[in-house]
């Protein structure tokens, strides 16, 4: 079987990292890079997600898998993949866009593997939660705690999402009821691993909220986030409480969330509750969020290329056996995992 993989957005921060990791682990794969600008080699393809007429080169190059690492709000690439029976993996969509794309895709005739993922933590939260308990249906509650450093290398997509959505409510879930909440409110004190210690964490929207409740049927799901700077964490909460985000322009909000450093760790913690008690799994990416997201995308890609999976719609954690996902993460040199 051919292994022709196209990374659309492959010249972005996450896209370049995906290409680097995927090439080093799978030298037999043929990897093409899709970008709006012409490149220097025959593997560089001019593809603009907003210009579907540029997609003809995808069929010309006999692409087996499209890996989308740039936001395609109108789902042009998804539609093309389904129409042309090409495997598709999207690691970019924020919650509202993922919900819209999934609802549309469910109504189509699917003759390839269509995979939606969460850009935060690379869509591996569900898989790691499954590694803590034999049956996902036994999980009564999942709490996810994210630690993000303003020193981390960051692309503009996550900053743009926060700028566009920070003043909008999103849903968290309790006993299968959705409750509207806002970012950076409802403080919860949490003791983070890897030497971080006790921090105040606030509401944060990631697609895993929707995926874990609506797809995996876990009744109660919440996500909280803290920054490495306690002052910045407090300040963003104050801005939300005083409704300052509501009066700032989109440009001003992008300036607030658009900072990027030279690299730092990223950490997230999953706390699950079953009738048997609670367990916690902690993951640290010493190279930060972009490296973790890219590695997760590579692991999903490898499962699609190597395993026999029926043509259907998947969420990325569903591609993996829980133990094999945990083992793959543990083997990677910049990932540390603790289970308690």
Describe this structure in words.
This protein is of the alpha/beta class. It has two domains: 4-121 and 290-321, Rossmann fold (3-Layer(aba) Sandwich); 122-288, Dihydrodipicolinate Reductase, domain 2 (2-Layer Sandwich), CATH 3.30.360. 34% of the residues lie in helices and 27% in strands. The chain has twelve helices and 16 strands. A seven-stranded parallel β-sheet has the order 3-2-1-4-5-6-15, sandwiched between helices. A seven-stranded mixed β-sheet has the order 10-11-12-7-13-14-16. A two-stranded antiparallel ribbon has the order 8-9. Helix 3 links the parallel strand 4 (65-68) and strand 5 (87-90). Helix 1 (13-25) packs across helix 11 (289-306). The longest helix is centred in the C-terminal third of the chain and has 18 residues, at 289-306. The N and C termini lie far apart (41 Å). The mean pLDDT is 94. InterPro entries: NAD(P)-bd_dom_sf. This is Saccharopine dehydrogenase.
């Amino acid at each position: 079987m051919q292994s022709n993989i196209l990374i659309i957005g492959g010249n972005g921060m996450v896209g370049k990292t995906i290409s680097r990791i995927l090439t080093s682990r799978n030298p037999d794969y043929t990897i093409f890079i899709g970008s709006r600008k012409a490149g220097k080699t025959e593997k560089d393809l001019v593809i603009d997600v907003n210009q579907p007429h540029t997609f003809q080169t995808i069929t010309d190059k006999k692409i087996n898998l499209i890996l989308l690492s740039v936001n395609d709000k109108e789902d042009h690439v998804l539609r093309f993949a389904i129409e042309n029976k090409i495997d598709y993996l999207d690691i970019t969509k924020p919650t509202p866009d993922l919900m819209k794309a999934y609802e549309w895709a469910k109504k189509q005739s699917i003759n390839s593997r269509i995979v939606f993922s969460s850009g935060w933590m690379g869509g591996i939260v569900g898989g790691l939660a499954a590694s803590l308990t034999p049956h996902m249906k036994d999980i009564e509650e999942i709490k996810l705690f994210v630690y993000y450093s303003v020193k981390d290398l960051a692309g503009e997509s996550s900053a743009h999402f926060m700028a566009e959505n920070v003043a909008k409510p999103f849903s968290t879930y309790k006993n299968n009821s959705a409750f509207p909440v806002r970012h950076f409110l409802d403080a919860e004190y949490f003791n983070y691993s890897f030497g971080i210690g006790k921090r105040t964490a606030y509401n944060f929207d990631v697609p895993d909220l929707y995926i874990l409740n609506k797809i995996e049927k876990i009744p109660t799901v919440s996500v909280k986030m803290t920054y490495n700077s306690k002052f910045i964490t407090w300040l963003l909460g104050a801005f939300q409480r005083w409704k300052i985000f509501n009066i700032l322009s989109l440009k001003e909000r992008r300036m607030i969330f658009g900072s990027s450093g030279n690299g730092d760790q990223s950490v997230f913690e999953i706390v699950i509750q079953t009738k048997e008690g609670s367990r916690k799994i902690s993951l640290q990416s010493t190279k930060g969020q972009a490296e973790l997201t890219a590695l997760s995308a590579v692991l999903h890609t490898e499962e699609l290329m190597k395993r026999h999976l029926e043509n259907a719609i998947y969420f990325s954690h569903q591609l993996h056996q829980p133990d094999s996902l945990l083992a793959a993460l543990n083997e990677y040199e910049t990932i540390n995992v603790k289970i308690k």
